[in-house]
């Protein structure tokens, strides 16, 4: 395993310590990236790639109506989930 991967794993483990004791406001994102239901899978994939995110809330007129993930996109393109 490359040292970079080991260091990243350690950083992730340290950041997850006591995460259950923290209020949501301390770990949440304030600027949420969203997409609308009318957008297509290519749009969703491009947004996920641009912002390096794996899940994308789907919002219609300010209301959350769903969420799309990278796995959903792969499944939609004929892959297995």
SSE blueprint:
Blueprint: H1 3-16, H2 41-51, E1 55-60, E2 63-69, H3 70-76
Antiparallel strand pairs: 1-2
Report on the structure:
With 81 residues, the protein is α+β, with helices and mostly antiparallel strands. A two-stranded antiparallel ribbon has the order 1-2. A hairpin with a 2-residue loop joins strand 1 and strand 2. The protein is built from three helices and two strands. It starts with a helix and ends in a 5-residue tail after the last helix.
Give a quick rundown of the structure.
By secondary structure, the chain is α+β, with helices and mostly antiparallel strands.
> Order of strands across the biggest sheet?
1-2
Strand segment count: 2
Binned, the helix content reads 25-40%
Radius of gyration, taken over Cα atoms and rounded to an integer in Å:
16 Å
The quaternary state of the protein chains shown equals single chain
Shape: flat
Indicate the proportion of strand residues: 15-25%
Residue-averaged pLDDT, rounded?
Answer: 86
Number of helices: 3
Distance between the termini: 27 Å
Structural class by secondary-structure content: alpha+beta
Order of helices and strands: HHEEH
- As residue ranges, the low-confidence spans are none
Major pleated sheet: 2 strands, antiparallel
